[in-house]
Recover the amino acids of this structure.
């Protein structure tokens, strides 16, 4: 069978596909059929509909023109949607021929040989010109119309031979060299990062498409968006903040705040917002505590739960109540809202200009509730459910899917199988370090790798948090030169492409199932779980254990 490049091309119209199929079915096993070739030189961008390489014959560029085509007053014309346009099929074919020839011959390393036959022709699969039609710029034997399709391959060979102009006919090796050159430089090795970037681009597109939900709900002022890990909640929350701040149509520009609990997620949100146009940036982005600090709320000791759960929220509510109208907000968006305590919601609502009708948009995943807080907003919200996992590969999604309280559908594409490395709790960190080394040896960039623990913190995390303040430590998440070491409790809303989840717990502890769910879902492309098989089975159940091969 003829060699096809690419094997399954996409065509912008049916005429090109029909011609490609005729040539595909008629060319010989040593021939090559290249479709939709794009070349750029100093003069212009060239789009070659078809390029056929035939050993002992030559190379020919074919321009395909569907619809009704005719030649009048020295010009080629075509009818499209009831309008007549002047076209230049011969120039396109000829220019494409010279562009391809020049591109090949410039590659002295892989070509470096005598010039071969290069030809051009035009195909009009829906138009007939008659056997005696001849034009100065295109002899009838180089024009292949509707009546010629039954013998298209034979005519293409004749077309090529009649434009030989004394040049050398290519060998099979010549044709393969041309394919190699037109395909670009061969990669030196498989790049897992490039593969992941390609999948990430698709995920970004799907997530942006999901933002159409905001159009449907644009007139609602109080919404509870619920979705499992990987459903795109954070991206949707940011998009909503942008739209509300900017305003559009019947929705005027608003003063918006975006809140979350964890420092790492807050840093991520700030970095994203910093890339936007100033007119789209919310008035505030940060943690619940920072929300109050802008009004004068004090700092507290990290270990003083009474301050964070009771004293600070009461103080913030009083401060919010005394805010000037200009300092309050038209809308507040809360991401990872399941982390908010009952007492935190009062200052949030108090910070609205209109406590009864002001915008309150809550994004949550009850299965990621890792702390003993069970607060819900004290207002009625319209529920909206996201049930597609856009972020994780199907393999990763399937591995933690049984941990989710409701079914979600995997839409994130394919990837490598999730792996499990058995280890005792005491040896789990060392075993996880070995997997990180393996990731790096296989070509993963450090910036794409993360090691998360579920029990004690990794020694490198301890070292970094001792060296930096908390804000400084979280900034290292975006360090392009190093692996990130963290704990599942702090990494909700964050992700990396390759994750080693270290289950370094000797027994099942409170909310261990939720920690496992969060940790496994932080990987977008490759996941390795390290830990005691029996502990993981006790935490997650038989369904997850089977998926991990335990």
């Amino acid at each position: 069978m003829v060699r096809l490049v690419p094997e399954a091309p996409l065509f912008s119209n049916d005429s090109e596909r029909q011609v490609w199929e005729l040539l595909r079915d008629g060319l010989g096993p040593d021939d090559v059929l290249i479709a939709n070739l794009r070349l750029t030189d100093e003069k212009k961008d060239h789009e070659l509909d078809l390029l056929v390489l035939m050993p002992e014959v030559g190379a020919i560029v074919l321009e395909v023109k569907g619809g009704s085509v005719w030649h009048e007053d020295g010009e080629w014309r075509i009818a499209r949607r009831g309008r007549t346009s002047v076209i230049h099929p011969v120039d396109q074919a000829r220019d494409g021929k010279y562009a391809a020839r020049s591109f090949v011959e410039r590659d002295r390393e892989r070509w470096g040989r005598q010039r071969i036959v290069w030809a051009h022709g035009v195909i009009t699969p829906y138009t007939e010109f008659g056997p005696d039609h001849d034009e100065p710029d295109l002899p009838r034997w180089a024009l292949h119309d509707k009546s010629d399709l039954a013998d298209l391959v034979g005519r293409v060979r004749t077309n090529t031979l009649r434009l030989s102009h004394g040049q050398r006919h290519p060998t099979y090796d010549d044709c393969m060299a041309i394919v190699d050159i037109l395909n670009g430089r061969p990669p030196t090795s498989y790049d897992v990062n490039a593969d992941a970037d390609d999948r990430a681009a698709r995920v970004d597109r799907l997530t942006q498409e999901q933002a159409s939900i905001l159009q449907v709900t644009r007139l609602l002022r109080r919404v509870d968006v619920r979705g499992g890990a990987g459903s795109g909640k954070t991206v949707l929350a940011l998009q909503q903040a942008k739209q509300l701040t900017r305003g559009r149509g019947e929705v005027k520009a608003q003063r918006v705040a975006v809140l979350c609990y964890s420092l790492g997620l807050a840093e991520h949100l700030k970095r994203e917002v910093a890339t936007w146009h100033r007119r789209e940036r919310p008035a505030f982005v940060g943690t619940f505590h920072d929300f109050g600090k802008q009004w004068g709320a004090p700092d507290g000791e990290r270990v003083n739960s009474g301050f964070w759960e009771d004293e600070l929220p009461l103080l913030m509510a009083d401060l919010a109540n005394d805010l000037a109208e200009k300092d309050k907000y038209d809308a507040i968006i809360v991401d990872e809202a399941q982390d908010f305590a009952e007492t935190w919601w009062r200052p949030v609502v108090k910070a609205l200009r209109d406590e009864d009708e002001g915008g309150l948009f809550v994004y949550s995943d009850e299965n990621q509730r890792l702390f003993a807080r069970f607060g819900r907003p004290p207002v009625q919200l319209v529920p909206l459910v996201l049930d597609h996992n856009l972020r994780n590969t199907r393999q990763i999604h399937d591995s933690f899917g049984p941990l989710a309280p409701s079914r979600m559908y995997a839409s994130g594409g394919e990837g490598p199988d999730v792996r499990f490395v058995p280890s005792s709790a005491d040896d789990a960190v060392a075993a996880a370090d070995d997997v990180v080394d393996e990731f790096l040896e296989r070509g993963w960039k450090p910036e794409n790798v993360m090691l998360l623990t579920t029990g004690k913190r990794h020694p490198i995390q301890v070292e970094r948090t001792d060296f930096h303040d908390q804000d400084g430590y979280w900034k290292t998440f975006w360090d392009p030169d190093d692996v990130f070491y963290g704990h599942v409790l702090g990494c909700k809303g964050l992700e990396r492409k390759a994750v080693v989840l270290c289950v370094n717990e000797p027994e099942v502890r409170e909310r261990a199932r939720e920690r496992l769910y969060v940790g496994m879902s932080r990987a977008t492309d490759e996941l390795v779980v390290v830990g005691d098989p029996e502990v993981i089975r006790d935490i997650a159940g038989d369904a997850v254990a089977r998926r991990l091969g335990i």
